[in-house]
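Ticket #4471: structure export looks truncated?
Reporter: QA, pipeline team
Priority: medium

Steps to reproduce: submit the single chain below to the structure queue and open the exported record.
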Amino acid sequence: MPTPDRIENATYHDQDRARRIYGEAFRATFEYVYGCHIPGAVAEFGCFQGFSSLLLADLLVEFNAMHEFYDVLHPRNLYLYDSFAGFPKSVDPVDVASYEVADTGYWRESEDAAPPGTEEMLRREFTARFGDRDWTVVRGMYEETLLSTPITRPVAIANLDCDLYASTSQVLDHLLTHRLMPDGAVLLMDDYNCNRANPRFGMRRAMRECFARTDGFYDYSEFLRYGWHGRAFFVHRLGDSPNPDA
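Actual output as written to the record:
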């Protein structure tokens, strides 16, 4: 069973570098969200061994303690969605033709499955930090779990590490169609530059198409970049501005 001191990040062999890169990006995101008083939960889609999950959980504990008055007004839950079984089989034509599936084969079915005991470890670690409330771990494929156990409250920070175009689209469509992201919320897109940063594949294409399907209700702009792979975006709600004349 994995333990917190041995949890690895799949993107970097140098785990100290991984902690620096993700730690700075995630901390800046929390500083911004708390500084701008943006309400909503923290949600993660895809966790591998739980490296980023525990970073997010620790930041929640730290920032809630520093901003106790704000936590009372805008309590934050932590949601984690993952199959813990690795990648699903790619059937969407966009993924089938992508570099990471058709060329390298790295995103093949069951690749990057979580080690046995990962889900139990995360439940144990979340309980140690939050008790038995204010967190949820949902096991399964997104097309099933977002229907059976959907997020229904606002989401201030969404960390998407779901790689594939199809998986990313399922998550974004859920968040955007149900208007779960408040104005100024942050999307952390872990695999934005995968597939050789080609806009025809992966997260780049999913972002473009999913936001286009909101018919102008949502838009996005760049916030920050982290590592060679990740990019964070501000989410803008254009359809219900608190100041219509702005």
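Status: closed, not a bug. The export was complete when the record was re-opened. Leaving a note from the reviewer for reference: The chain has a mean pLDDT of 91.
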